[in-house]
């Protein structure tokens, strides 16, 4: 697919551009409205096209924990019958806790961790089935309360009796930006992994104590523009970090429900690197 079309969709999903304006621009790039309508399903997430992750070795439940201004909804997944588990907070994209991110949460659990997929839209009634509506609601969240809700999620994990007290986070897109924010705002965080997420403010980098792993798609010009300044600040402040840029792949390359942007090779490599970091940093806490 023409990279200009993929870039247009990326712009649409990360801005306040209306669907009407997006479709008008898509029709121009595609050559007609009819072709635009044909192309659209290839751009949008298709949860039915990706097989749901399942494992007999994990258990999954819906839970709530106290947030900044009411209960936060979340999906918790963990290996059956295991204790002393390293914990991972999973942070969704800018559409809410959708089936893809629930699958990611289960996959983290299957790797041997206690995983918590938080629904950031809990204060607004929870994630809707309409992705455009979810994107609109993300923009209505109170930034400070939203940050506190995630910080409280980290504390919830630290206090779990089946956890070992060590906590990391992984976020995607909007959630990748939040992973960077959590690294800045939680000095007890052991590891933070950001997939194609906005970088933290460079003036805040000295606050980071966690080990960082940052995954970027080589074609993701919008997000990648912030890499040089961020990396320099990480170097200057001697932060433990790794940056991986995957050539020839797009923003959201890990999302297997997004057919035009998913890249299996890059996704598998980034995932193995992510799990290796968590195994290194979130192993059983010795007392």
Automatic annotation (TrEMBL):
Q: Which molecular function term from Gene Ontology is one that the record holds?
A: hydrolase activity
Q: State the UniProt keywords alphabetically.
A: Hydrolase, Membrane, Transmembrane, Transmembrane helix
Gene3D superfamilies xrefs: alpha/beta hydrolase
- Database matches in InterPro entries: AB_hydrolase_fold (IPR029058), Dienelactn_hydro (IPR002925), Dienelactone_hydrolase-like (IPR051049), TAT_signal (IPR006311), YqhI_dom (IPR057802)
Annotated YqhI domain ranges read: 2-27
Any transmembrane segments, and where? 26-43
- UniProt keyword Hydrolase present: yes
The secretion signal range is none
Residue ranges annotated for the Dienelactone hydrolase domain, each copy included: 72-281
Q: What protein name applies here?
A: Dienelactone hydrolase family protein
């Amino acid at each position: 697919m023409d990279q200009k079309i993929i870039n247009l969709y990326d712009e649409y999903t990360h801005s306040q551009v209306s669907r009407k304006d997006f479709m008008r621009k898509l029709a121009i790039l595609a050559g007609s409205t009819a072709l635009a309508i044909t192309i659209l399903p290839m751009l949008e997430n298709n949860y039915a096209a990706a097989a749901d992750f399942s494992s007999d070795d994990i258990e999954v439940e819906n839970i709530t924990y106290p947030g900044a201004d009411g209960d936060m909804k979340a999906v918790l997944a963990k290996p059956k019958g295991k204790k002393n588990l390293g914990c991972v907070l999973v942070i969704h994209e800018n559409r809410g806790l959708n089936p893809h991110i629930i699958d990611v949460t289960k996959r983290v659990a299957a790797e041997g961790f206690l995983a918590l997929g938080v629904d950031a839209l809990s204060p607004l009634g929870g994630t809707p089935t309409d992705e455009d509506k979810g994107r609109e609601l993300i923009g209505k969240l109170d930034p400070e309360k939203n940050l506190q809700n995630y910080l409280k999620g980290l504390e919830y994990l630290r206090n779990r009796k089946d956890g070992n007290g060590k906590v990391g986070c992984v976020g995607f897109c909007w959630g990748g930006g939040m992973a960077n924010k959590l690294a800045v705002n939680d000095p007890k965080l052991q590891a933070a992994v950001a997939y194609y997420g906005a970088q933290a403010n460079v003036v805040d980098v000295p606050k980071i104590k966690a080990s960082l792993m940052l995954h970027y798609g080589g074609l993701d010009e919008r997000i990648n523009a912030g890499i040089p300044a961020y990396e320099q600040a990480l170097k200057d402040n001697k932060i433990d970090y790794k940056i991986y840029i995957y050539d020839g792949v797009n923003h959201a390359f890990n999302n297997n429900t997004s057919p035009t942007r998913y890249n299996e090779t890059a996704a598998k490599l980034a995932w193995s690197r992510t799990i290796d970091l968590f195994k290194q940093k979130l192993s059983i806490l010795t007392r």
